[in-house]
## 1
Amino acid sequence: MTMNPTSVASGANALRATCANALRVLAMDAVQAANSGHPGMPMGMADIAEALWRHHLKHDPADPQWMDRDRFVVSNGHGSMLLYALLHLSGYALPMAELKRFRQLHSLTPGHPEVGVTPGVETTTGPLGQGIANAVGMALAEKLLADEFNRPGHAVVDHRTYVFLGDGCLMEGLSHEACSLAGTWGLRKLVAFYDDNGISIDGDVKGWFGDDTPGRFEAYGWTVIRAVDGHDFDALDRAIAAAHASEKPVLICCRTRIGQGSPNRAGTAKAHGEALGAAEIALTREALGWTAAPFEIPAPVAQAWSALARGAAAHGEWRERFAAYERAYPDLARELLRRTRPAAGLSEETEAALATACADAERLRANVATRKASQDVLQEVGPATPELLGGSADLTGSNLTDWKGHRPLKGQGTGNHVHYGVREFGMAAIMNGVMLHGGFRPFGGTFLTFSDYARNGVRMSALMKLPVVYVFTHDSIGLGEDGPTHQPVEHASSLRLIPNVDVWRPADATETAVAWRETLRRTDGPGCLLLTRQALPHAGDGTRRLDAIARGAYVLRRPAGERVALLASGSEVGVALAAAELLAADGIAARVVSVPCMDVFERQDATYRRHIVPRHLVRIAIEAGSTGLWWKFVGEDGDVIGIDRFGESAPASELFRLFGITADRVAQRARSLLAGETSRTTDAAPALADR
Amino acid sequence: MTMNPTSVASGANALRATCANALRVLAMDAVQAANSGHPGMPMGMADIAEALWRHHLKHDPADPQWMDRDRFVVSNGHGSMLLYALLHLSGYALPMAELKRFRQLHSLTPGHPEVGVTPGVETTTGPLGQGIANAVGMALAEKLLADEFNRPGHAVVDHRTYVFLGDGCLMEGLSHEACSLAGTWGLRKLVAFYDDNGISIDGDVKGWFGDDTPGRFEAYGWTVIRAVDGHDFDALDRAIAAAHASEKPVLICCRTRIGQGSPNRAGTAKAHGEALGAAEIALTREALGWTAAPFEIPAPVAQAWSALARGAAAHGEWRERFAAYERAYPDLARELLRRTRPAAGLSEETEAALATACADAERLRANVATRKASQDVLQEVGPATPELLGGSADLTGSNLTDWKGHRPLKGQGTGNHVHYGVREFGMAAIMNGVMLHGGFRPFGGTFLTFSDYARNGVRMSALMKLPVVYVFTHDSIGLGEDGPTHQPVEHASSLRLIPNVDVWRPADATETAVAWRETLRRTDGPGCLLLTRQALPHAGDGTRRLDAIARGAYVLRRPAGERVALLASGSEVGVALAAAELLAADGIAARVVSVPCMDVFERQDATYRRHIVPRHLVRIAIEAGSTGLWWKFVGEDGDVIGIDRFGESAPASELFRLFGITADRVAQRARSLLAGETSRTTDAAPALADR
């Protein structure tokens, strides 16, 4: 392959080269101004970006929310300046002043692309591998939405998802999970451009990345377009045309030079992540024949880049199409608009189903596993909520994420319950993509322990304010015989630590129903439902209980003459109630506080918090997991009964005894504390001989 | 492919079929007795296990620690009963009584295989994908150790690593990371048996796993032996012989039936994870022609299975080989024995290097980033510690995990600093495998935020009590412009929550050196070193400081008439010291407590803890991250100044001001608390307008 030096392009492609160079110069100048950032990728992928954005991408800079726009994802998110340059030049509401403030506080041009901050940015990227997985989710959503809403002659949902990605994304395991699914699902409107520049931060990738990537993607069932010169516009055009003709997802392998245009840095790892410096920038300008000052774009170039007219035309054409659709299928059109409205709330039908689920749970007072109670909620909510897109990472029958009448999504079919296979991280990142696309409300299940595998995906849901729902079952040693590899200990608390995640650990069927209701009502962040394998007793009742649960913590038992407060979540609420009975028999009145969601409780006002957890009571918290976060609520004179070591393989009931998560032990601790003994030193710890 | 019905095998293979059936029956009977477990995989892979274990595996049941044994990993760890049956029948110290206690409390036969619990179990598996990655680490360790110690005619390190794995492992992204590296590294002694039974928990895998797996592994540079009948002993023998002749890692694709032998469950998802039930067990016994009672093995079968004689012979032959090596290369032999001794401590040379590093740091009082201070430690320790196997997930120049004179491990070469590529989880699980193998002390680096990607690998280090070292740099908003995707907030605390992980967040070069010392001295669990990108001032000195740091928390500043205690870790220790100076100017005496390792501090006796953090002082903790875990130390009348929301993209110094991690704010809070104002309500919070 011979490289086509961008600087000497001529004839019909001269303008294209100049347009691409505008991206290069903006990127290098912005990184230089910030003295921070990554010029290498933007300069290397500038020609590809020109080919895609100026000639193929369907978008309307005047309306970044246009539902039927093509989606564009920079999975190698450190190349953010490429995206900002594209958005600015295309005509999005991203003025040059913001490019000058690249990576400065509260600019519209943060270090990595952030959805919700910059108009036209479709997803937040940077953590490698997640962008391509988000894109798979977007393409899945497009396919499902088209299948559901399009009618013959009325293709109102018909757009592509384009991704830029690099070696880093391809090394990450997540790319395997997501791209395997894209192939299995046959997502033919997904087109990924692989920036095959042979360089990652540590240098020449051959030393740690020997994959035959085209062969790998063919094994996933993708169309692979090999060995495209990423600096040859004609070759890129041919590749994109071929991609559009494919019936499978497409990987276009583009041979590029990182930092292309920089005489001394191009093709080196040094081009990746630092400013070129004034001298090299001058040399690069010279090599590119670029004479304009930093952050100045010559008028002909600006004109050539503007996508406003083309975007308005495309959008207008679609509006006409949609108007025809609206006339032919008014109900469908209304529903499609409802579904794809940004931050769409729940329908009345869904709210009614949730109300029924809550009322039924409270009325039936069933002793069930909360994972089963969750499925009972889905039996109501599923049929009432067409936007619901459930799923599980190959644990459907254990997570109980399916419901009567659900339609399993397998292979190239459609459906509303996704079999993600054993791919927890892939599931999370794909759900994020589905949510970003719009039209669906995704939720997915796995064992709580394996939330670890998905962890940064959950974090990205939270950072992007996406109300994705995570159903994490088998939430403690209560899972029993599978043993410590499968028993969560630290997971409830460590999920609580992620900002903007609401972690619910309901104590019975009613709390489970309310947890679902509150989680589905969220519009600005994810919820995790931590559910038991084992059956739990109904914990309490009362007409006002539903509202109380929704505040994150509430008093379940409030005897006269209280001296003790027992705080607990989930399966330990029953333990606390039993302990309170034991104490009552000794004449000690104990309040029981259920804490289904510590995160929500912490958002209540101080008066409510003090009302529920009064400082004058001796307080003990009980949770079959890490103790650390509970000290905030019990104070130094209280105690926390939990588990700060790994579990064991044995039947669950034996484990609760072994680890001392019992009413007897709680009652004993309360008596000790009331007798003035200091905490943490006098506890008759259960026999925890380590092996 | 025609299945060879195991029950009608005849001729030379009749005994082999019977031996395989012994595995099947033990597995189904043990699962039945426990009424819990997974019969499907053991019954499906029994013939493969017979072929490998009775005819090829080099091991000595009388000495499970024999250094040159072949390693055997059940990556599909739910098939634990297959492994227990193999170990029992081969002659390991695993009596039948323990098989009867499958999945019972403190048995030697927990639900999933656990290293350190059961003789002969090489690694703890169950979390899918990690076993194969551990195996890659073992094979890497074998290769490196052989390269370092073998001499012509003296192949004292020469063994293979075998892995069983299933569809679940292959769907997990981790398998991509590990197997890509195995191919790049050319680990020719790694042989994986793929249990291609077409079934995962949700059913027929075709609906969610459409990969051409052989094609995928060829793309990694593996030898793939396709379409082997996993129930045909002759075909398996041929495949294993071919594998041994390969110059690359080998994947043997075995077509099997899950639950093979069970007339009604074989080939179904129902065979996977539940007991067959008495009726089906009777039918299976009949189909297999197995008449012995549960947990009884006919003498000829037991005799056929015993590997004691073969193992003793192989081990004896190796002992002779090693004796000859010892005569020829006494120094090498001594060093090899030192390196491969279980739980080998540090050498005198390493201890001396650590002592030098600690003393130098304290003497030089340099203001450096702790990541740089860490590299300074490695400059001392690296050359003195041949067992050290460093590495980074493509961030060598940022993590500063290399040292002068390190030898980079790339491609098929050897070395002592591994370029893992952008594969955080793979790095963790491979390091676990290296540690389990013995001969090396692995450490690896990435950005702290991306500890999320590796999280369950860190957990497995802890569960397996492996003293792997994680170097997590860029440990807070101090990383600056890269923004919230790259800025850790909850990570320090969430790593602290994992049992048996020691998380060090040193405040200066001296604390960094001691953190390395204490982490390297551990023999029973991992350590995480959380290091800054930005320079930090030297925090204090004194001859006794080194010992104090090692206790996890200590008093750095103790003025007369103390009223306030400021607790901090890492980069916030400097903030606390500055705040104490501000308070001193107001006549308020403030103690400063540095808390480099909360985990170690919590293991100190109560007297020491109260001595360092006295209850009578008004206490404020400061850490640029989640606040939750600090309340235990400051009490309800204290306060915690931290960050419970996501970061921002901006220069680091601006971010510390934005988030209020400043001496001014700390001093102001201290004054407020002393004035009797209640915590958390009166704080003049910094302007944190959310976008």
Note: Confidence is low (pLDDT under 50) at residues 1-9, 679-691 of chain A.
## 2
Amino acid sequence: MNETPKSLRLHIGIYGRRNVGKSSLLNALAGQQVSIVSDTPGTTTDPVEKTLELAPLGPVVFIDTAGIDDVGALGELRKERTLKALERTDVALLAVEPGQWGEYEDFFVGQLRERNIPFGVVFGKCDLAAPSAGQLCGLDKDGIRWMSVSAMTGKGMGQVREALAALAPEHWFAEPRLLGDLLPAGELAVLVVPIDLGAPKGRLILPQVQAIRDILDSDASCMVVKERELASALARLNKKTALVVCDSQIVLKAVADTPPDIPLTTFSILMARFKGDLAAFARGAAAIDQLQPGDAVLVSEACGHHPSADDIGRVKIPRWLRQYAGGDIRVDNLSGRDFPDDLSPYKLIIHCGACTFNRQSMLARLGRAHEQGIPMTNYGLAISHVQGVLRRVLEPFPAALTAFDAVSQA
Amino acid sequence: MNETPKSLRLHIGIYGRRNVGKSSLLNALAGQQVSIVSDTPGTTTDPVEKTLELAPLGPVVFIDTAGIDDVGALGELRKERTLKALERTDVALLAVEPGQWGEYEDFFVGQLRERNIPFGVVFGKCDLAAPSAGQLCGLDKDGIRWMSVSAMTGKGMGQVREALAALAPEHWFAEPRLLGDLLPAGELAVLVVPIDLGAPKGRLILPQVQAIRDILDSDASCMVVKERELASALARLNKKTALVVCDSQIVLKAVADTPPDIPLTTFSILMARFKGDLAAFARGAAAIDQLQPGDAVLVSEACGHHPSADDIGRVKIPRWLRQYAGGDIRVDNLSGRDFPDDLSPYKLIIHCGACTFNRQSMLARLGRAHEQGIPMTNYGLAISHVQGVLRRVLEPFPAALTAFDAVSQA
């Protein structure tokens, strides 16, 4: 629990045919490290994920996928999950046996290129048969980075680690900040954090912890209060606070208690910016105005949690949408990795804050929605919009506010 | 990661002979619940732990132990681990087959009574053979609570859940607070949180998160600052803060920057109070004064983390102890569940804050140290003491301060 959350780790996918040594490659990479932190046991179809610290990259997740040449009914399902894993892959390794390059590899390199995923090709089992220059030059011509390794002897593993560092996307080393960039060093933010009755004992939710940490990393500081204490907390400060951040569920109270000259935003807006594209989500929120009775909306959640009686995605948002549209709106709830390829039945997608997903996964979903012309927003932006205060909480982000206004006034 | 930490869950141990249906009992209890949260895969010898929400108790951990009648070399090891699991058990269930009560059960009831662990006896497999009144009356006489269940049919599981709630120690329902009791509603605490270079990305350590949450649960609020910002944070407040809590590693800076009329303590002191017995730990810290060159000290850590170059337990504390004693001190480092039965080689035990252990585990270790007359303290108290500021940070706890002074001035 004192580990880096999976969603903030570089996702490295290991792909290749069956029995080409994908798991051995992973184990050889991990084996040089003492700190394999946890294994998420896969089902028969889901890829296994392993989190570890990998020098010089830092915290990573390896996604150990099924063979892309898997066969049979279950094999087809595994193959589908393997392709789905591409959506969260920041960097890919394609494992190949010397002399084995063929249609599967061509297909896969095509997939990786189409998605702009940086990748390297690893010739495994080189203790058995080292690849000849002839086998490799076709790859070299295309500018593909290839490595020759033996998982058995450990040969070449240093090279793979260095290659991964070189392939990692730039944003990995200069990641977007959750909110630290909004706070000059020495400034103070006030975080308004409601505690639900059902909140797990002894915990804060991940976006709150991430926010506190990011503020400290910026040499700024913060005050953490429940919504009832916001007004008195602001009154305790003898210098104006630089920013108030509130949970979307109590945004009306926060707007009421925060003087208009203090910037105010929500954790959901910060997450939309951090995990995806805030301007796109602001346009998506404005699209709520266009919903008509009879329309369908997809409500998508990253973690398949146990729904509560007054669940946001299943109860509150559908109710608000229906009130707003003045008639029935069909709401489909999906959770986890389920996200349809065909989004055309929907007029709008409302996604959770995705604190358990990495940025790449959210960008993949946003990209699919964009291609199909379906607006997408997140829970918190939708809540702020139906309550009439989204402009107030978007003010700290002028580009997103402009994007919102463009759709809203259209 | 949004779950209740294991250390804050009620630990329910399931004991009994091999094949008596311990795992089936656990599965039947868990199966009625939808939310099995995670399985910690055991090694061949370690008990498996399952965390879940169990009405009406809330967050629990089930410890699924090996049979107490296990045989062979590995069996002996498993049996040893099973007995070790008693140390973290808040409530025990002893699974028995009807007609099978014998020496193992007598031995185990003796163990549970010796340790004052509340327990119930579960006659499993009652779909196969219901126990007769005669088989049970011996137990009834001793005031043991027994239940008759069938894991197969689910019969009696409601009774077991109710029994667990009735057996749970009082402190489970009125747990000691980490610090909420020190802060009246509406008050403000300042938390001083250094961020190590090596700190996991996007995270705060558990005691910090627990402190923030406990403050909010008390309708109080807090300011979270790094040590460099403490003075300016205090200057921003137009009303005196009720409490400053700092990380032990920067206690000297916090003492320097906190006006003497503001109560100041450390996260380590709060953890000592929450997980164990602060007065005992204060006496243990004072015992550092009695260390002589050539003495041995046990440094014990709850989690077997990867030691860093300037590790507290392996590098900093040994160095300080040697400086303090003016000569060589032998330091033995142990981590995880390793804690020797015989503590007599040691003049002192210094334990980590134990944020990953439950209170019961720490009380078991403190109890063993107490029985053998070995003083015990924790990292943070030791650090504050060798830096000469322990009295200042113990001031909010008069009984502990008195305990410290009694040994210190002896």
Note: Residues 72-85 of chain A form the longest helix (14 residues).
